[in-house]
Structures are given as structure tokens and as C-alpha cells.
Amino acid sequence: MFNKRIKIKDLISMEPQSQEVTVMGWVRTFRNNQFIALNDGSTNQNLQVVLELGSCSEVLLKRITTSASLKVKGLLIPSLGKGQKVEVKATNIELLGDSDAEVYPLQPKKHSLEFLREIAHLRFRTNTFGSVFRIRHALAFAIHQFFNDKGFLYLHTPIVTSSDAEGAGEMFRVTTLPLEQLPRNEDGSINYKEDFFGKSTNLTVSGQLEGELGATAFGEVYTFGPTFRAENSNTTRHLAEFWMIEPEMAFCDLEDNMNLAEEFIQSIIGYVMQNNREDLEFLAQRLADEEKQLPQDKRSEMGLLEKLEFVLNNQFERITYTEAIDILLQSPAYKKKKFQYDVKWGIDMQSEHERYLVEKHFKKPVIVTNYPKEIKAFYMRQNDDGKTVAAMDILAPGIGEIVGGSQREERLEKLEQRMNEMQIPTEELSWYLDTRRYGTVPHAGFGLGFERLVLFVTGMSNIRDVIAFPRTPKNCEF
Ligand code: 4AD
Ligand code: MG
Q1: Using a 6 Å CB cutoff, which residues line ligand 1?
Q2: What atom in ligand 1 is closest to the CA of residue 244?
Q3: Does the model's pTM come out above 0.70?
Q4: Which H or E run includes 249?
Q5: Which residue's CA is minimally distant from atom 3 of ligand 1?
Q6: β-strands 69-78, 86-97: how paired?
Q7: Residue 232 belongs to what domain range?
Q8: What is the pLDDT of residue 72?
Q9: Are residues 144 and 16 part of one domain?
């Protein structure tokens, strides 16, 4: 058996009693032909491996370079040096894989995030990305645990679909038709009957509609999967491929929905605060160092840990869209014409407006409800005022919209009427309308953008740095 090893994370908290241990990892640095800093990805802390002078051949010493991989056998002893409690006195070193330090792109120095994005296949080997991706993993785990504990069923909704769940037309087409010679109908339109699925298909923008089918049988379900949007938004908050968590609950109204969303966010943040302390502290320090270079007024009022603690311990603010617009109209920013985009009832709030509400006015996460129906999707429940729908968005400091959700229109006639108004084909979505035909119930749900959550928790500033291989307009490397 090859893999009889101890992970460094476990090793460094063990009592050193000269016991024999085996570790494997990659060399971060090697100094004085004696001290190896070894990392295996389980923690940012490197293990100090000490070679006795003269115990290794010259040939082997030369091969111990940054990023070479090693299998080390040795004795775990208290460290004499500063900076670590224990170290391993090597008794045997096996070089598993060489790495030419001259050409290895990661040097033992600080690299810019932009540079690291270009070598995204290697950036996991840095401390920043080590922390980010361990936290991303922990958040995913906490999400499944949260819903499992509450009795939700994890429903795997399809990736390839023939519907546009959001009705926004931002879809990536899926086809096997020859693009150079498309089969045509008599009227010149493309004949999708000849396509793989016999109809026009695309990558899903949301699993919600299928989620509703599940909720109206199981009561409570959630999806957690990749979603795809062909929106040409080149921002630090948008990806063409992102992961979304979408719970959907029968017997649930807008208020129940908000309560769940708030409890959900607080619970998963609580999980990483408890279980990923070391990585969070590393990222908090990183952010603090980064912000030192900014002018005073551009710096965050709270450190990363303080911010997370604050979100855990304070209720989110809840306001209606109409109240939000009033606040913006009364704001000094509006009066001094500081907003780039105009403010009036009916607008789809821009990120500058959302950030004003959250960062300047309330200074905490805000849930905005009851948006104008014109700017929201067809499935949202129509309010009695005839103008608004039972929508809710959660806006987070530094991020903007992190959650979008609503109570769903459960009344068949109202839903069909809205679909007709918005030119959404009712025949194609007949399966969806069946939920309203056969035992319809009040129900609600929301979607949390996973990468936006990871951004919020890690304090990173670009969404491309919290997903392993970002897909954005004109960029699909790796
Ligand atoms: O507000 P959205 O479009 O809502 C839906 O898709 C609903 N079907 C959700 C539901 O009710 N089940 O998207 C939900 C969230 C947003 O709040 C945002 O956090 C994230 O998904 N999101 C994106 N994240 C990264 N890149 C993009 N291009 C995103 N578009 C939306
Ligand atoms: Mg939205």
C-alpha cells in the first residue's frame, strides 16, 4: 500500500513523541540544504522537514526544488526553530516527481491575482487559493447538511433543457446540427426536428421549474448544480457558468421564504466560522493588507471576521421595493447626482443603488420585497395591487444581489394570463402548469448564487477567483 500517510493538518496538532510518520506533499521552499517547507494542501501551514547534514546524496539534494513532490518518512519531534510546534526529522526521502524550478511559474513570492488567473491550473498551490477552495468546499458541505437536517430532498434537475426558466433568453444553445449547413424548413427557419433531441435545446439557466415539480410532491426540495447564462456581463460579479442552490417549498409564503433564506445564510456562515477558522483568518489578514493600500474612504469599515460575525448576529433589514426607491430618492447621493443611473419607481435597480442601500444606508444585508412585475419573471405571485409581485432579493454588503426568490403564482388562471402577456408559450410549459392543475398549493423558493456567497465569505473581490475555472465572455481556458 502506497498511501499510508498522515495529512499535515492532522500532523501539526499531534503530540511529538519521536513517533515514525509518513507525509507526502510538494516542496514550497528548501533552504540551507537542510530545511524543507512541505505542503500537502490540507492546510496553509507547511510542515518543516529537517534533513540531517550529509544524510542525503548531492544528487537528491539538487532535486529538492520548489514544487517537487516528496514522500518523507521521519520522526515527529518538537521543533527547535520558531514558527512551528513540531517538525519531522527525515529518515528517508523519496522523490516522487521532479519540478524544474527555472521554469516553474510559481515563485516563492507574492503574485498578483491577475497573473494567477492566467495559470489557474496551478493557483490551487498558493495559500490564497488553498484557503478559498477549502472554504468553498466547506460551504458546499454545510449547505447539504443544512437542508438534510431540515428534511429537504436533494433533487438533481437537468442540465440540458428545452425551456427558459427565467424567460430572459440568455441561453447557451445545445445542438449537434452542422453549423455550416443547417437543415431548413420551407419558410427558411431552422429545422430542429433534425437536431439531437428533435427540438431546440439549451443549457439550463435555473433548476427552479423542475424544483417546483419536486416541491409539489415531496414538500421540500433543493437543487445545487451548475447553471449557465449567456449574458454579456463582464463584471466582477458575473460568470457564464455558476453554481446555484435553489430550495423550493410547498405550503410556504413570501415571509416563510425570507425566514428560511436568512436562517440558511446565517447557518452556513456559522459553519465555516467554526470549522474553517485558520483559512478565514488567513484571508482576513490578506484583505487587511490589501486594503492598507487603498485610500481611507475606500476601505471596509469592518474586517472580514467582524463582518461575518455581524451577519451572524444581526437580523437582515426587510424593506419593500417602493421603500427602497424612496430611500434612494431621499439620499444625498441622489440629490448630489452621484448615481450614474436614474432613480424612479419601476427601474431595475443598478448595482450602485443596491450598494448604496446596503453599504451606506443600512450597513447590513437587506431583503427587498414586492418588486414591479415588469422587471421580474413570469412565475412570481401577483400582488393585489396589480403592479407588484411577491419577489424578494437579498442584497449583501460588497456583493449586491446574492439571493433572488419569490412566492410562486399558484393560481392557474393568473399564471396563464401573465405568461400570455409576456409571450411565454403555455403549451411548451404545459408540464409546469400541471402543478397548478392538480392540487396546487401556495409555494415559494429562492436561488442563492454560490460564487457570490463564496466571495462574501472569503472577502475576495473578483468572482473569477472563487471558482476553479471561470467562464466569462471571451474566456474559456482549461
Ligand atoms: O435572480 P436569479 O436570476 O433567480 C433565479 O434564477 C431563480 N430561478 C431562483 C429561484 O427562485 N429559484 O438568480 C439567482 C441568484 C442571484 O441572486 C445571484 O446570486 C446568482 O444567482 N446569479 C449569478 N451569479 C453569478 N453569475 C451570474 N451571471 C449570475 N446570475 C445570477
Ligand atoms: Mg435576480
Answers
A1: 165-166, 206, 208, 229, 231, 238-239, 242, 244, 246, 401-406, 445-447, 449, 451-452
A2: 21
A3: yes
A4: strand 241-250
A5: 404
A6: antiparallel
A7: 125-160+205-465
A8: 97
A9: no
